[in-house]
């Protein structure tokens, strides 16, 4: 019998498996896809040379998440590479706004809003460790008072007005583009928290891209699990927990919907799970292009991440588009994140050809091919972009949900990012990771602290499970809901 089984090998599943393996448990991971990694896959999509990140590409959490730091990515050969600007935002008919790694350069370029940007970011930068600790916590420990103090004086302005406290269109749009990573109504408390977290990290540890693509991060985690004796099985979609081998602990890197599908749950918990809300979808386009993106403002080529939205790119347009999308409406010019990994890692461009990905926020379950919409948005700010495209593909939000069952209806956050659901993911319980099934824990981004590649959902879930380990070790597999039958492939 194995000690623990983990279902799903996304960053949180691998983080859970590694945390358990580090504690000395025998661990087996079962992954539906033929490759490990969940949101960390990188593949050659159009030719054998250029690698494309299928989901995550940019990793602001890698240098700051306690779990990610424990991997020692750099020491294990995965350099975290930076573009000179972390992110940028084009405005139609004017110069683009850029968030440089260097705060002074950013403030100098923001002109009238330079002092306001500094007043917003500098205290967060000085309290960064506290802010990160609070935001990546299980949300069940007493909040760090230093983080609370710095956030409490900044959140209300951002939550009341997109780009609140800033006056120029460039600065307001720049900040609102970060807030929109929260995928939901704008402005809101949840999106404001995202803006402050990601916004200040741009000027501290940055928004790096792992050399060789996101799969390199998954490979480091897998190697460490295997070194500790863990086993990883791929190509195995778990349809019932009863099919899993005998074990004492079960950690599930799955969505609440998948949990309800594969487990026999008590009616009360099932009712609570059925109230869990999923958010808007992401519809993604992958491009293989010749040369660089022909941005109207060439400085945009200095940023690996560029935010687009609205016809002109203003904060008000972004807020309208995000709010409409959250209501299930198709915004004419939705918010789009464009990532050009070669801006940080030039080796990603092979013989002049480079990967570019972009995803648009669209209504939940949207079935439209996003290619025409994303191409048009890029053409708007980078005239001639279409002529650079050698190959392309579009993946609708509905198809993204089929590709990975964690992204229900294309919701890449695995659950709407409202303030309530940030705290009560997936159900309002003191221990959000524990399920009513003995020894069975949820560890996906549908638990606190939520989406993004930080591994902290998996880490917290594994820690919670380990706290019961002596009890789990005494119990029989049958009591823990383990079927004990060999898994059929
Ligand atoms: C297009 C896109 C772009 C993104 N960009 C970024 C980015 O740049 N930076 C960032 O930080 N985050 C980004 N994200 C979000 C990030 O990828 C996720 O927040 C993160 O991967 C969630 O990790 P997870 O382990 O909870 O789930 P996932 O990474 O989704 O992994 C879940 C795994 O479980 C497997 N699984 C599910 N059910 C079963 C089952 N029944 N049996 C077996 N296996 C199962 C799935 O196949 C999958 O491999 C992006 C996401 C998408 C889709």
UniProtKB/TrEMBL annotation:
Annotated InterPro entries: FAD/NAD-bd_sf
UniProt cross-references to Pfam families, sorted A to Z: NAD_binding_8
Any coiled-coil regions, as ranges: none
Gene3D superfamilies tied to this protein: FAD/NAD(P)-binding domain
Domain of life, source organism: Bacteria
Protein name (record): NAD(P)/FAD-dependent oxidoreductase
Naturally occurring in which organism (per UniProt): Streptomyces lichenis
Lineage: Bacteria, Bacillati, Actinomycetota, Actinomycetes, Kitasatosporales
């Amino acid at each position: 019998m194995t000690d623990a089984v983990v279902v799903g090998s996304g960053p949180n599943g691998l983080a859970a498996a590694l945390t358990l393996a580090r504690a000395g448990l025998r661990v087996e991971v079962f992954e539906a896809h033929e490759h490990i990694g969940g949101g960390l896959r990188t593949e050659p999509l159009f030719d054998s040379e250029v690698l494309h990140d299928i989901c995550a590409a940019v990793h602001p959490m890698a240098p700051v998440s306690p779990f990610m730091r424990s991997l020692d990515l750099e020491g294990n050969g995965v350099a975290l590479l930076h573009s000179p600007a972390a992110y940028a935002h084009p405005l139609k008919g004017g110069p683009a706004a850029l968030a440089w790694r260097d705060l002074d350069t950013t403030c100098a370029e923001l002109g009238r809003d330079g002092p306001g940007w500094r007043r917003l970011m500098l205290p967060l930068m000085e309290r960064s460790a506290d802010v990160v600790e609070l935001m990546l916590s299980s949300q069940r420990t007493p909040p760090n008072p230093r983080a609370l103090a710095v956030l409490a004086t900044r959140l209300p302005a951002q939550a009341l007005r997109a780009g609140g406290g800033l006056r120029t269109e460039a600065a307001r749009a720049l900040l609102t583009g970060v807030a929109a990573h929260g995928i939901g109504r704008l402005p809101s408390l949840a999106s404001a928290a995202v803006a402050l977290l990601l916004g200040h990290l741009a000027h501290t540890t940055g928004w790096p891209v792992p050399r060789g693509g996101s799969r390199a991060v998954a490979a480091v985690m897998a190697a460490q699990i295997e070194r500790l004796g863990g086993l990883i099985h791929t190509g195995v979609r778990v349809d019932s927990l009863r099919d899993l081998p005998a074990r004492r602990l079960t950690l599930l890197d799955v969505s609440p919907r998948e949990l309800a599908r594969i487990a026999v749950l008590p009616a009360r918990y099932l009712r609570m799970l059925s109230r869990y809300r999923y958010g808007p979808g992401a519809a993604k386009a992958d491009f293989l292009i010749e040369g660089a993106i022909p941005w109207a403002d060439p400085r945009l080529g200095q940023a690996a991440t560029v935010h687009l939205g609205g016809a002109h790119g203003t904060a008000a347009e972004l807020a309208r588009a995000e709010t409409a999308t959250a209501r299930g409406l198709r915004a004419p010019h939705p918010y789009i994140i464009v990532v050009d990994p070669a801006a940080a890692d030039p080796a990603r461009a092979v013989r002049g050809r480079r990967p570019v990905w972009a995803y648009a926020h669209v209504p939940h379950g949207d079935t439209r091919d996003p290619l025409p919409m994303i191409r048009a948005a890029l053409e708007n700010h980078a005239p001639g972009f279409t002529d650079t495209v050698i190959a392309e593909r579009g993946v609708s939000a509905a198809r993204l949900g089929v590709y990975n069952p964690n992204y229900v209806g294309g919701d890449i956050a695995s659950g709407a990012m409202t303030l309530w659901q940030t705290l009560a993911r997936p159900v309002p319980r003191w221990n959000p990771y524990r399920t009513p099934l003995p020894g069975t824990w949820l560890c996906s981004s549908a638990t606190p602290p939520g989406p993004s590649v930080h591994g902290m959902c998996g880490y917290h879930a594994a820690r919670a499970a380990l706290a019961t380990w002596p009890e789990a070790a005494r119990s029989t597999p049958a009591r823990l809901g383990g079927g004990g039958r060999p898994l059929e492939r």
